[in-house]
Specification:
There is one protein chain. With about 575 residues, the protein is of the alpha+beta class. The chain has 15 helices and 13 strands. Strands 4, 5, 6, 7, 8, 9, 10, 11, 12 and 13 form a ten-stranded mixed sheet that branches. Keywords: Cell membrane, Coiled coil, Glycoprotein, Membrane, Nucleus, Signal, Transmembrane, Transmembrane helix. Enhances Ca(2+)-mediated inhibition of inositol 1,4,5-triphosphate receptor (ITPR) Ca(2+) release.
Amino acid sequence: MTHPGSVVSTSGRRILTGQVRLSKTVFRFPTPLQREPETMQGGIFQVCFFVTAAILNRPFLFPKENATIPERDEEIITRMKEHEKAYEMERARLEQEAAKMNQAEEKPVVEDFNQSWDFWSAVSLVTFLMIEIWRQDFQDGNNQDSSSEEEDYLSFGNVAKKMILPDKGVLASFHDSCIGVSGTEFWRMREFVESFADDLLEALRSTCNRDADMEVEDCIGIGSMYENWKVGKPMLCDLIVPFTPPEPYRFTFEHWCSPGNDVPPTWQGCGRIKIVNANEDKLDCLCGRTNLGEDMLCLLHSKAEKVKTKNTTDDLLCSKDTTYLAKDQVMKWFQISITKAWNQISHKHKFDLTFHSLDSPGAIKVKFQSGKVIVFNITPVVQYEDTDAYLLSHFESSNNNLSDIYWPMTFAVYEKNLFKFFAKNLPSNSCHLSCLQIVAFLHKKQCSLTGKSGLTSYHLKTTLLHLLLSKLPAEWHSDQLQKRLRDILMFLEKSLQEKKLYHVLIGNHKVPKWLNIPTVFREAEPLNLLRPLLLKGDLYVKTVDTFQEMLKNAPVLIQEYMPHFPNGITHLQ
């Protein structure tokens, strides 16, 4: 009697028809039931057959370098279908024979056969899994090798990590003698600029028509002078002046993070400012469109609420045929207003005032009779809703009409507050500002040798803030000056190599919540500050070359600009 699923061989022994399905191909092999030697031989044969089938049916298991993968796939699939069809026919024939034999003779399958079958099946499964894992590791290894080859090709050589930096004592002496600004001079400069700016803006308000012109608010100090890391002379103060439209108008905003925005990728980090009438509902009333005369009154709107319709988009400094605020229009208005304001108060001051740059409306140069010169920027901005974010007018000339209505957004006030926070929470003699000043000084000197670079002081400041947010306060002690300076240089080198330097406040969850960054920007995708450089390939290459030269020349530059350079240059291992 035979067991279901078994057949009788020509020698009279019962043989169970086992089967293995791999991909879409079904393989069968005989399994002995009675004698141990035959069971062992069958198991070994099963494992070998299984491995061979895996190799034949896995085209990527042992890939050939010059094989054409699509052609091999098609050939293997065709062959597998033919084998599958043949095996299905053979299986049907054997099942019919086994059913007939089972009716004639019934005998239970031996228990030790089941154990043998389970053992060799498990060995086969483990073998196949090991081959599969090895294959994936082999392919991943190849991918990593090719990836590492590409990284080696793009690598800058880790110049920042290998460069020789002076020890902390030399760096501290260099900073104090060549970079540090006198505290007395620093505060006197800020006090004069802020006082004069207040007088100038007060005179500007008096010359403007409050019913038709933009209204300016008090100025706000931003930038390196107010973050206490200004490098070199002449010292330059940056002031921003928020302004608002006359009643009944107001600003609304469209930026790259707005839902459903249509801001082009080129203008990420920018927004448009739309001027809308806050009393648009009144325009539908007859009193808002016609003159009712003195003997007629509107029962819905009083005379005090009467809609002002004399302002046009040109009066409101909008781009032509749009309701979007134009930077060029604002530039002209602000320059004219500053000029009128100065003419009104010039007799009170014993110095001359001129515009320092034709491209910026508020770049002002003050020249005293003694010959001393003070330069500062006073730039009109629009406050974003009720936050400390502002849309900044750079007034760059452009042939593209669209660029005139896109305003870069600045978070300088938040950054100033972040610096104040670190000043209170870091060690009293922390080295974070010294590190930033040294890097800014070296980069400025290198640019004077090799030409302008796309890397700005804002990129340097962003790098420092990223490191301040990721390191413990104790790591910024003064005796860590050399290590932290190297960290900044390595961070910048890696950013240039990876072509990514993200804005420190946008999409960065490491920023403390008490800073109150608007949620729409806090949860936005990170903003790559190097993207403008990448769009100009030549500028990016120039920037990389300049930075690498700065790294190589840093020890020489420090020695050249330091009057008394002590011994003790050390290499950080």
